[in-house]
Target: Leucine-rich repeat protein 2
Amino acid sequence: MACRVFLVSFLLLLAASPAISTNSEGAVLRALKARLSDPSNVLQSWDASLVNPCTWFHVTCDAHNRVIRLDLGNSNVSGPLAPELGHLQDLQYLELYGNNFEGRIPEELGNLKSLISMDLYGNRLEGGIPKSFAKLKSLRFLRLNNNKLSGSIPRELVTLSNLKIFDVSNNDLCGTIPIDGPFATFPLQSFDNNSRLNGPELQGLVPYDFGC
Ligand SMILES: *[C@@H]1O[C@H](CO)[C@@H](O)[C@H](O)[C@H]1NC(C)=O
Ligand SMILES: *[C@@H]1O[C@H](CO)[C@@H](O)[C@H](O)[C@H]1NC(C)=O
Model:
């Protein structure tokens, strides 16, 4: 009984302490690191014993010690993208380009409600573009080019009214290119070299996913 009371007060303390709640963001990043191969030791400073991840290299926090940037472009890391990344509620910049990230893009990344920029280009990602990205209402830059992504471009993305740059060139996408919302402004080069992607949708026609 005393033991249970102790446990409950410990859990209350955990819930109340901001230091520990930011350390849960450290745990998220450690989950990413745990699955990666890091031959150039770029993640060496990711020390779990620190009170939060804000002093780690490639991680930037705001004044409240919340992670707002993850900068691992051209870092020679390989492995899967951890779904846990979706818990970084204040993340604005997810910069993971030019590595050997592989496997599917976790749909949990659609929970990054503060995200402004997601750069996953130049990896070996496969599978589809998650429909959950339609929840990224602050997103301005989405670059997924030079991967091995397949499937169609989710129509749901036409609701991303802040999206300024969208690049899915050099993948294996199929279907048609949406024309509504921000898609009215993206140049055709953003869609280059997807052998089964068939031009912009025709106005007024229900999109038909050729070969998808
Ligand atoms: C990248 O990793 C490979 C091993 O996978 C290693 O041989 C190479 O030296 C690394 N490149 C850099 C720039 O660290
Ligand atoms: C087209 O995209 C594929 C997949 O990313 C890539 O391997 C290939 O080199 C690209 N081809 C050209 C001409 O850029």
Q: What stands out?
A: The longest helix spans residues 18-34.
